[in-house]
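Tokens as discussed.
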């Protein structure tokens, strides 16, 4: 990565195209998810290497439960496998968070998630947010409910609520703003991902399917990001 490029502080990635990757090869969709999980590990390490401060990956959305039960089960079993080894990041300095509504997840998955968060909470390297049973609208509702409870308890007055107060109840509170959102696979939509955080994010869409995604593809996205002027509503 050339030094003159501006490295985003926080990158969001919609890891899309696993199923299509498998179909093109005559493989079951689960093979695409397995390959995609391997790519996730490589890209996470590469983000740490080039100086990204936070990475948020879209692993499983609130809408993904509508997929065939066999595929959902396979994804959850794959997740169990990777959770068992802390995504393969044991001994590395990543601070791992899981963002999203956990109540629908299996108890053993919740237990492992909490264990990983606890053991990595004092790490000082890359912040890795894994969006699991996550939806952007659901996150906003969650934050609004939390603020409502603060009002009812008398801790805050309605007129005191501003953007900073609201953001303090989002899943990524205290982290750098999301500078770049990347979606491989050729699709060009946000799919309910980081709706609050993406207000001034730069978007890069790429035709590469996620299981084929490489550090060189990330370099290419960052080059495009670096060439843009970010005005944040100004001139």
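Sequence:
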């Amino acid at each position: 990565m050339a030094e003159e490029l501006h490295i985003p502080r926080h990158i969001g990635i919609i890891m899309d195209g696993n199923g299509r990757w498998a179909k093109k090869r005559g493989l079951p969709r689960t093979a695409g998810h397995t390959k995609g999980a391997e790519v996730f590990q490589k890209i996470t390490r590469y983000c740490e290497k080039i100086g990204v401060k936070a990475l948020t990956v879209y692993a499983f959305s609130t809408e993904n439960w509508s997929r065939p039960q066999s595929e959902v089960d396979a994804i959850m079993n794959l997740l169990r496998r990777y959770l068992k080894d802390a995504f393969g990041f044991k001994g590395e300095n990543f601070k791992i968070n899981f963002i999203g509504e956990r109540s629908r997840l299996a108890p053993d998955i919740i237990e492992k998630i909490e264990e990983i968060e606890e053991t990595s909470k004092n790490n000082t390297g890359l912040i890795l947010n894994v969006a699991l049973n996550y939806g952007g609208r659901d996150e906003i509702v969650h934050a609004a409910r939390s603020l409502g409870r603060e009002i009812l308890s008398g801790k805050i007055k309605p007129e005191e609520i501003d953007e900073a107060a609201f953001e303090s109840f989002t899943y990524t509170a205290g982290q750098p703003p999301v500078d770049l959102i990347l979606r491989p696979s050729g699709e060009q939509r946000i799919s309910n991902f980081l709706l609050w955080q993406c207000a001034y994010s730069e978007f890069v869409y790429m035709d590469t399917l996620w299981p084929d995604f490489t550090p060189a593809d990330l370099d290419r996205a960052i080059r495009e990001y670096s060439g843009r002027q970010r005005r944040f509503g100004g001139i």
